[in-house]
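Progress against Task 2.4 (sequence-to-structure conversion) is shown through the following example record, which the project officer requested during the mid-term review.
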Amino acid sequence: MVNKVEYITMCTVIWQAVINHILETTGLQSVFSKVYTNPSSFDNSGCLHLSPYHRQDWCTLSPANMCKGHILNEHCQKSAVKYDVVAFVGDGENDFCPTVRLGETDIVFPRRCFPLDECITKARDKVAARVGSWETGFDIINVLKEVVMGGRE
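C-alpha cells generated for the chain above:
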C-alpha cells in the first residue's frame, strides 16, 4: 500500500507561463510539487520570452530542449523520499526515454494509439514497468486505486 503520493509534471511543448496559468485558473497549483518545463516569462512590454529547459545532446530519444528521462532520474535521486512506485503518464514519442528508465515496480500509462503506445508496442522488451494504456483519466485512476489501496477498497 502506498502511503504518500507526489505529483510532478514534465512538459516539452508547453511553456512555464502557460502551465502556471492553467494551474492557477484550475486551482491545481498546490497539487504539483514540481513543474519541469521550458522557462518563459513576460517582460514589462508584455512580450513572452522563451528558453529551453536545458540543452542536451546525450539522449537520442529526446528533443534537444528536454530529456524527461534525465529529469525523472534526477528528481528521484535528489528527493528525500524513496519512491515505492513511479507512475508515469505520457503520450508522445519523447515520453519513451523516461519509460525505459522505469523499473519493475513502476507503471507507465501510454495514451492508447498515440506515439508512446506505439513505441512501447515496438520495443516492449525494453520496458520493465507495468503498462496500463489509457483513453480517459478513469483508466488511470482505476489502476492507481489498485496500487494505492493495495488491492483493497
